Structures are given as C-alpha cells and as structure tokens.
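Work Package 4 report. The design task specified in the project plan requires that, given a folded chain encoded as structure tokens, an amino acid be chosen for each position. We show below one input record used in the internal validation round.
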C-alpha cells in the first residue's frame, strides 16, 4: 500500500499558471523569468561630462514545463456485483482520485530523481551532500549531515521549511528523540526536525542501503491536475455482451498533469511517447538547471541509516 505524503503535505504547491496551460494546446509551455540584477561594483561618479556610464542589461531566461496526458481504466463484471451485493464500479470510482494522487507522487519523485541526476552529471553535485562513501557512522543520517545538505544553499539555507525522508530514516530520527512537535493551524500538532516540517514517505529513493532525503523551501515544486480539454475526465463504457450477456462496465479516467521543479527546464532529451514515462522523468538528459544554485529551493542528502 502506497502513501502520498509528499503531495498531501503541501510542499508541492498547486500552480494556477500550470493549470491554465494544461487546458491549452501543445505538449509543453514556457515560463519566462527575469534574472536578478548583478553585483558589479557601483560606478564612481565624477565631474567629467564626457565620462558616461554604461548601462547594464537585465538578463532573462525561461523554463520549459512538460505536460502529461494520462489515462487509466478499470473494469467490473455485472455478475460479480450482483453476487457480492455491492457495486464494484462505484467502489472504483470512489478510489480513482486517490489513485491519481499516488500517481502524482510517483511522477514528482521521478522528477526529483531526474534533477538530482542532472545536478550530479552537469553541476558537480552542488545541490547534494553525499556521505554514502564514508565509513561507519560518518555515512549515517545525522543532524550534521542535514546541516551540510542545507548548507549547499549558502546564506539561503534558513529558508528551508520541510524535509522528506524514508521511513527507515524516520526510525533513526525517532530513536534519537530528535522530533519536536509544534501546534498547527488546525489545532493539532506538526512533527518537525530542526525546525523543518517532517514528511515520511517510502517512495523516496533507497538503493542497496543508500537513502535520499530531500529538503524543500516554499515554492520548490509546482503542479496542477485538470480534466482533459476535449475528452471526458470520467467516462463509463458499457459492454452488455460481455460475460455471455451478463454485462461488463469499464470506468475510464483521464487527467492532464503538470509537475515542475522551480529553476529547471525540461529538455525533451528522450521521450518515446506523447508524454514522459516515470523512467524518462528520472533521466538526467531530460532536465537542465537554468538558474544559479541558490535560486533552486531544494537540497538533497544521500546517506545510510
């Protein structure tokens, strides 16, 4: 059974611009943005009328966001519902939204794996603290390692607001009694680790004892899910001749989905079908960072337990 803690936690924010574009044509769209002003030394003024200052230009760039056009269907034989005394198709329909939430989570984690792979391959891993090659306890998850991962953001590290970990890492945090609980807006409590909201999800990568934890700032990832513009989002197909006349019903569910990590552009380096698969989202060849490291509100920690 899968959870979808990352999507449901709020660290992945619904984005109205992505939602609007999902209802438009084309397989992708661009989001232009202005770069910040540079930090060149200011001009030193003088009284020479012929000494004119040279204005600098405000640079810009763009991020390419890839859309996904997705479908899943489930069937139920009418006789099975008759014998069980329950409507199997209604049960399927009740669970379809949860299915798409889990699929959104899978595509989110695949995208995070892709930008992590791109960062290691093309930016010397400047967003990653990797201690898996250390020996003994130096390779294990620790507060010190989390600080080093956060430190890849330099003086913006205090903007980190959440950390997502595998449950095996969560057990280490529990055993170390490192969790603090703070009141939330709904009258309950929120688990935090070193001031960051703590999210536990077993879909986070684990490879032969090497675990990837992800640190987020607000706005790190935007997403949207909409119904298709033309086809019905939910459609029931009736096949009365199936089951030798007993009948079969098939529920078709369709969504348009966009997930995009801030500061990256989709490259379309390797996509075989009309939408990128989970495996293709995880490829370094399909991502490129288009901003400086500090402008990406994400950091990664690779460790052992």
């Amino acid at each position: 059974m899968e959870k979808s803690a990352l999507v449901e936690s709020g660290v992945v924010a619904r984005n109205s611009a992505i939602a609007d574009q999902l209802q438009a044509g084309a397989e992708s769209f661009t989001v232009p943005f202005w770069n910040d002003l540079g930090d060149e030394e200011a001009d030193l003024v003088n009284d020479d009328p012929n000494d004119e200052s040279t204005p600098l230009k405000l640079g810009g760039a763009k991020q390419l966001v890839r859309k996904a056009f997705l479908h899943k269907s489930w069937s139920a034989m009418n006789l099975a519902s008759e014998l069980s005394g329950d409507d199997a198709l209604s049960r399927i329909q009740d669970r379809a939204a949860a299915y798409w939430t889990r699929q959104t989570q899978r595509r989110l984690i695949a995208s995070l794996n892709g930008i992590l792979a791109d960062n290691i391959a093309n930016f010397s891993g400047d967003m990653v603290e990797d201690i898996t090659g250390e020996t003994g306890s130096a390779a294990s998850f620790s507060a010190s390692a989390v600080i080093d991962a956060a430190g890849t953001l330099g003086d913006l590290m205090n903007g980190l607001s959440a950390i997502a970990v595998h449950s095996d890492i969560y057990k280490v945090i529990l055993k170390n009694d490192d969790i603090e609980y703070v009141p939330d807006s709904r009258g309950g409590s929120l688990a935090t680790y070193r001031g960051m909201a703590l999210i536990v999800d077993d879909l986070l990568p684990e490879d032969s004892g090497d675990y990837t934890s992800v640190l987020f700032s607000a706005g790190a990832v935007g997403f949207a899910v909409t119904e298709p513009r033309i086809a019905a989002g939910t459609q029931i197909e009736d096949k009365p001749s199936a089951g030798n006349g007993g009948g079969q019903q098939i529920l078709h569910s369709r969504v348009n989905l966009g997930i995009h990590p801030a500061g990256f552009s989709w490259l379309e380096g390797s996509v075989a079908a009309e939408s990128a698969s989970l495996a293709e989202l995880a490829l370094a060849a399909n991502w490129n960072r288009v901003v400086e490291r500090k402008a990406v509100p994400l950091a990664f920690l690779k460790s052992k337990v």
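DSSP finds seven helices and 16 strands in the chain. Validation will be extended to a larger panel in the next phase.
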